[in-house]
């Protein structure tokens, strides 16, 4: 069962939700930036600079989180975001390479 | 430039359009069935039995065609559909395996 913040467990991550989340170009940009960074690097949601409005940003990170692509952690006055690299690599081999390779 | 029926050339196939097309579970079913068949097998659009209404079926095959996933050929009173296997394998290595492996 997804946890209180809506993170699915590894076995619950579904291809349909992942593909829907990744159909959006700016959401793919988030994933590509996380892929380029060191393993398990934690970024703040605002650090991507992709969405100016807080509600839009919140929406897009919710889609990524609920699909199982990222993990968000509450850090008081901000939220940290990490890529669920190991979960995604185990569940959908080849997926992350596909996103990383987009020109 | 896409041809008169909206088929993009190989180099024009975009990951965003492909992921959007594949976000729909029944459209993924079409691709999975074509993947399981012999190379270049031609099916009729009605043979999948996934959409009862003609307009719905037409819509979904248009999405698949315009994204570059399938090629449709007019056969007079029906349309044949083939998977663009070589184009997709060349453009997005790993993508077809990802779809084929969905449980």
TrEMBL record, chains A, B:
Coiled coil: none annotated. One of its GO terms (molecular function) is DNA-binding transcription factor activity. PROSITE patterns: HTH_ARSR_2. It comes from the Bacteria. Residues 7-103 form the HTH arsR-type domain. This is Helix-turn-helix transcriptional regulator. It comes from Nakamurella aerolata.
């Amino acid at each position: 069962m997804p946890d209180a913040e809506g993170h699915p467990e590894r076995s619950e991550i579904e291809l349909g939700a992942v593909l829907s989340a990744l159909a959006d170009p700016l959401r793919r940009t988030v994933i590509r930036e996380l892929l380029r960074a060191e393993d398990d690097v934690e970024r703040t949601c605002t650090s991507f600079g992709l969405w100016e409005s807080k509600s839009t940003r919140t929406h897009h990170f919710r889609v990524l989180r609920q699909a199982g692509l990222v993990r968000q952690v509450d850090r008081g006055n901000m939220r940290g975001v990490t890529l669920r690299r190991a979960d995604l690599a185990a569940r959908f081999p080849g997926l992350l390479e596909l996103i990383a390779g987009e020109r």
